[in-house]
Specification:
This protein has nine helices and eleven strands. It has a five-stranded mixed sheet. A four-stranded antiparallel sheet has the order 3-5-9-8, with no helix packed on it. The protein has a two-stranded antiparallel sheet with strand order 1-2. Strand 6 and strand 7 form a beta hairpin. Helix 2 packs antiparallel against helix 4 and helix 2 crosses helix 8. The N terminus is likely disordered. The protein binds 2-acetamido-2-deoxy-beta-D-glucopyranose. Keywords: Signal. It holds the Pfam family Ferritin_2. InterPro entries: Ferritin-like_SF.
Amino acid sequence: MLRSLCLMAGLAATTFGAPLESRAVSAPPGGDITILNYALALEYLERKFYQEGINNYTESDFCDAGFDKEFYPNLMRIYEDEKTHVDFLSTALGKKAIGEPTFDFPVTDVHGFVGLAGVLEGVGVSAYLGAAAAIANKDYLTAAGSILTVFSLAAQFITGLAPNTNLPFKAFPTLTAGDPTKTGYKAGGKVVFKGAYKAAKAAGKSGGKVNAVFYSGLQTYYVPVVIGKNKIDYVATIPGADYATDGQPAPAGQVYITLSSADGKKVLAGDENTIAGVAIVEVIC
Ligand SMILES: *[C@@H]1O[C@H](CO)[C@@H](O)[C@H](O)[C@H]1NC(C)=O
């Protein structure tokens, strides 16, 4: 079971799912312009990302890097899909649609591109955007309540918003994960958040309980952090199989982490209690 989960997570991180099918859609209900604009911002982001991918790299770059012949045509198809999604949402939102933000992706080669595509497609964004394509159903969107987490993750690639954009989002203080073993993050192992204690202290946020919140697929885990020996970092234990008291699988594949004062019991992690994030780590099986 665990093994197949790991395999699936690995696949999700390295291959693209079939492009989203076009679905029969009708106009959005108009109630939640903000949520729809978050969705539009994410669609802009994906469109730009794939556009840069097909412009920056050639088919033979991907082949040379070991990806098969289908890879490049697939990227082009995904890009076309993203264009359609942007058009759909912009048209549906009409005058209320935000303009395109500017983005900066920390990518310099084919491997970096595919890795980041895995992050964007792997867990949150594609699951959420699947819903965005069928945006007519507002309840469905609201139920995909991970939008803010997803958006905060995506927000780190946004360098500027278009004028008159009314899109409330906070870019949280950066969270940088370090691997103390240098052999890869493993369930049950440690992750170091570099400088995070010092930063939280400076911001007056180190006083109460601080939890590392791990998002892996649909699972969320709250793990208390400890202050590193250097009195600069925070350190957390990556949830392991022993965490699975309530049957949760251990995190695997691309995992997102935030620091939060929420405990996951009385209070759930959200924008208002997030201290830093989002860090992205790859947990290997
Ligand atoms: C594409 O190339 C530009 C210019 O070098 C660079 O700024 C950008 O990050 C690259 N994007 C991707 C996705 O590779």
